[in-house]
Write a structure and sequence with these properties.
With 354 residues, the chain is mainly alpha-helical. Helix content is 70%, strand content 0%. The chain is built from 17 helices and no strands. The N and C termini lie close together (9 Å). The model has no long low-confidence stretch (mean pLDDT 86).
């Protein structure tokens, strides 16, 4: 496709994704989510290997794993097991990419479903499409791991920490960067004012988590210290603007905190919003630090994904006027469209074999 038809194709895909996601919420029927999940996954999985700057490397890795076996790699065995297993079923890298996209998109949309009563689902879906869907056609493995962590956070809200850390461990075996997600429960407990809940957690689990942190930290320092020793100062505009927008949008609410606290419903909304905001903020700060230490940039994605929930909440709740909401959402659309068209090499689009 040329640029014009590519833009039309992606816009139609985004509109259909938002339409059917809203349909699911309006009808309170999660089965409608199958349509956007399958649609996005087919677009990602059936792309030409020239779409996406990393696609050729991903395909080479899939084929290498099929030929050499899972243990030809030193880590992330679940991911490579899936590569091998799926290639045995059908020796076609596009099939593998489609399944990976299905896993990623399904986990994200199922998790968004948990927030359906508290977010504007169209806003959340459009932001996901513009900022993260294109990313998933490049860093396939990391995006799948991020989606696993994002889904697993539902267990934090249920105080089922065993299942959350199991999810993080699975994500770690898909992409090693997921180990940073062990801090998310602390953020939840701290900003919900429930640090005392830590004392109620079985000491055995605390010991296990601390041990895992020490082992993982030691391994990462040993394995990747060289990456983090690189330092450069190259501040880019895109991440800076996104960070400032995130900070500014929350500042507007915080300025009216006293007024918000007088309303019981808004007070509860503010507490829920504050938690996801600080998770997203951590991701943006880490990503911004990536301008100085390049290896840090991608570590932030595990947290940044929460911005789709944060902005979805902003557009649903009555923290400020519709004019302010429209202004913020308009800026997000402009930034997202620029990001989608500029980064990742996904424009122009072409189907496999096309």
């Amino acid at each position: 496709m040329d640029i014009f038809f590519t833009v039309c194709f992606y816009l139609i895909t985004m509109v259909l994704t938002c339409f059917f996601t809203k349909k699911a919420v309006d009808k309170n029927d999660i089965r409608w989510l199958l349509i956007p999940v399958i649609l996005l996954s087919l677009v990602a999985g059936l792309r030409s290997f020239d779409v996406g700057t990393d696609t050729h490397r991903v395909v080479q890795s899939i084929e290498y794993t099929y030929e050499k076996g899972i243990f030809s790699h030193s880590k992330e065995y679940i991911y490579y097991f899936l590569c091998k297993f799926l290639m045995i079923i059908w020796k076609n890298p596009s099939f593998v990419l489609t399944v990976f996209a299905l896993i990623t998109n399904a986990l994200v949309f199922i998790r968004l479903w948990d927030f359906k009563d508290n977010i504007n689902i169209v806003v959340a879906t459009s932001i996901y499409f513009l900022f993260y869907f294109g990313l998933s056609m490049n860093i396939v493995r990391q995006c799948m791991a991020i989606a696993i962590v994002f889904y697993a956070t539902r267990f934090i809200e249920k105080k089922n920490y065993k299942f959350y850390f199991l999810g993080v461990f699975i994500a770690f075996l898909v992409h090693i960067s997921s180990c940073v997600a062990i801090v998310i429960p602390v953020i939840y407990l701290f900003f919900e004012g429930k640090l005392s809940a830590i004392k109620q957690i079985n000491k055995k689990y605390i010991f296990i988590v601390v041990t895992i942190c020490i082992v993982l930290g030691s391994f990462l320092i040993y394995k990747y210290a060289g990456y983090f020793s690189e330092f450069s100062l190259n501040i880019g505009l895109m991440q800076t603007v996104c960070l400032l927008l995130l900070l500014g949008s929350y500042f507007l609410i915080y300025m009216n905190k006293e007024k918000i606290m007088k309303s019981k419903s808004l007070e509860n909304d503010f507490e829920n919003l504050r938690t996801v905001y600080y998770v997203a903020l951590l991701g943006h700060v880490i990503a911004f630090l990536g301008y100085m230490v390049p290896a840090l940039g991608r570590l932030g994605y595990t947290f940044k994904l929460f911005e789709i929930v944060y902005y979805g909440m902003l557009m649903k709740k009555s923290f400020y006027s519709n004019v302010v909401k429209a202004s913020i959402y308009g800026m997000l659309l402009l930034l997202g469209f620029y990001s989608f068209m500029t980064y990742g090499g996904i424009v122009p689009y072409a189907f496999i074999g096309g």
